[in-house]
Design goal:
The chain is of the alpha+beta class and 322 residues long. 32% of the residues lie in helices and 22% in strands. It starts with 25 loop residues before the first strand and ends in a 9-residue tail after the last helix.
Length: 322
């Protein structure tokens, strides 16, 4: 998975001047004139980078001036945080602060799904009410060159381009001071797609089934979550629209052909997927021309690549020759 940051839309060869993408990320709530602009600056660098997931901040360029000092047990600055094991929980405490309170993070193993995280702004020897309570998402603690710290809750791990909630620290404790949005407020990423692309996406989604009786694994739900994240990047951050898909395009074609041979209704859906694709590609290419100022030929290449990635993201077909 790629994780190299390149700052600026121009360096990616993508202009978003006419796009809803150009409006994001943005502050939707600002209660701290110092912290919130700093958090927004970081959000913009990450958004404009080629990482798939905006919930991580590794490899921030040094010139930005802020750095992540905690974002998980394998990625924290030991010179800044104390760490101890307490009742099977990992406890991380900020060593020094200009205020009467310090950041304290609890990381607790939950089950096979992973760990949960809680954030406190605590005075000495006292555990206050949590600012973040048993969240699946690992918070990120940033520090400025002046030593000021703030915390980002990067949003639900199952959501696509989720909002950031930013917390600052003062002598009264920790406060939720701002929200940063990375996308319009829609229920599904596919709601942002041009109509022909949305139709094609719905047809692909219809092949997955309901996902009932899958136990706690929720395989189908996991695929749908991943697909939503791909579509969000396709429409808003095409420079980051890639995915570590399991199958090649040809393997997906083969798998769908076999699937479609099972019933007439399956065959009808597969036929619709094929016949609706040209209109979807045309609409996607036009979208990139209009919203990202791309010449027709380049917009067409972008559309083909983006739709290929989206297509393959829906499926995991066995590679076994049998």
């Amino acid at each position: 998975m790629r994780s190299v940051f390149i700052v600026g839309f121009v360096l990616f060869g993508v202009s978003a001047s006419n796009s809803i993408a150009g409006a994001y990320p943005k502050l939707t709530r600002n209660a701290d004139a110092m912290t919130c602009p700093l958090a927004l600056k970081i959000a913009r660098v990450i958004y404009q980078s080629d990482v798939e997931d905006v919930s991580r901040s590794s490899n921030l360029p040094a010139e930005i001036g802020e750095r992540a000092i905690w974002q998980g047990e394998d990625d924290f600055d030991k010179a800044v945080f104390d760490h101890r094991l307490e009742d099977a929980r990992q406890v991380y405490t900020l060593k020094a602060t200009d205020h009467d309170h310090k950041w304290l993070i609890l990381q607790e193993a939950f089950n096979w799904r992973g760990d949960r995280y809680s954030l406190y702004a605590t005075p000495p020897e006292t555990l206050s009410a949590p600012l973040i309570d048993a969240d699946w998402s690992s918070p990120i603690v940033f520090q400025t060159t002046a030593g000021h710290t703030f915390v980002v809750n990067p949003g639900a791990i199952w959501s696509f381009l989720p909002d950031w909630h930013v917390y600052s620290l003062d002598n009264e404790g920790g406060k939720d001071v701002c929200t940063i949005a990375f996308r319009p407020d829609v229920e599904n990423a596919t709601d942002l797609l041009p109509a022909p692309v949305k139709i094609w996406a719905q047809l692909l989604g219809s092949t997955l089934g309901t996902g009932e009786n899958e136990g706690t694994a929720h395989y189908t739900a996991g695929i749908r979550t991943g697909v939503e994240k791909v579509w969000a990047n396709v429409i808003l951050r095409p420079w980051a629209a890639y995915s570590d898909t399991y199958n090649s395009h040809a393997e997906v074609d083969k798998g769908l052909t076999q699937w479609s041979s099972q019933t007439k209704s399956f065959a009808a859906v597969y036929a619709q997927i094929q016949t609706s694709y040209p209109a979807a590609e045309d609409a996607m290419a036009q979208y990139y021309q209009t919203h990202f100022d791309k010449p027709a030929e380049e917009a067409r290449r972008m559309a083909k690549s983006a739709l290929d990635i989206a297509y393959r993201s829906y499926f995991v077909f066995s590679k076994s020759p049998n």
